[in-house]
Amino acid sequence: MKQHLILIGMTGTGKTTVGRALSERLGLPLTDTDRVIEQTTGQSIAQLFREQGEQGFRAVETQVLHQVLAGKPQVIATGGGIVLRAENVERMKRHGWVVCLQASADEICRRLAGDTNRPLLQGDLKQRVRQLMLERAGKYDFADWKVETTGHTAYEVASMIEQRWRREMEVRV
Ligand SMILES: Nc1ncnc2c1ncn2[C@@H]1O[C@H](COP(=O)(O)OP(=O)(O)OP(=O)(O)O)[C@@H](O)[C@H]1O
Ligand SMILES: O=C(O)C1=C[C@@H](O)[C@@H](O)[C@H](O)C1
Ligand SMILES: [Mg+2]
Hints:
Largest sheet: 5 strands, parallel
EC number: 2.7.1.71
Subunit structure: Monomer.
Catalytic activity: shikimate + ATP = 3-phosphoshikimate + ADP + H(+)
GO molecular function: kinase activity
Strand order of the largest sheet: 2-3-1-4-5
Number of strands: 5
CATH topology: Rossmann fold
Bound molecules: adenosine-5'-triphosphate, (3R,4S,5R)-3,4,5-trihydroxycyclohex-1-ENE-1-carboxylic acid, magnesium ion
Function: Catalyzes the specific phosphorylation of the 3-hydroxyl group of shikimic acid using ATP as a cosubstrate.
Number of domains: 1
Distance between the termini: 15 Å
């Protein structure tokens, strides 16, 4: 059953930040799949990538998503690459309303300048962001709604999503 509010989108579009604000506004718990991965493995994301490679990380991510979706209704902030596995996409569509956060490549670079916690962005940030955007073109398109975040604060984005969510829920009561 569709019961969660699931945030997807490229890395740096604000899923974690907007998720926190949304969870407060909606009075729903927040789960961030990246944080659950770190808690359950006892390793940082950077360590996991180093020791298990990206595919090792993706395997844990899929397990964690499965567990979280089986839980009570909540706001779920996902990792930017969660859409890379078709089984994750199918499960998210089945179990929640999926909201895609968007931002321009320049805005993502501004937000993530100096970041050392995202293994896929190390090196030339501009080049890495552009490359990931190209590789992932179309992968976020299955979302129920899309929200442009460039030029809006995380609180404004959360407020836009809250209003839309409340409207949708009213229609469904
Ligand atoms: N709307 C916004 N405007 C400006 N800065 C923002 C906005 N949303 C988030 N940020 C900032 O951008 C950075 C990345 O945000 P955040 O960690 O929430 O992204 P994310 O989508 O969760 O990324 P990831 O997929 O890597 O987990 C943070 O420093 C955050 O404060
Ligand atoms: O875009 C990605 O593939 C990633 C985004 C982060 O949320 C983390 O899940 C990790 O750094 C990988
Ligand atoms: Mg995040």
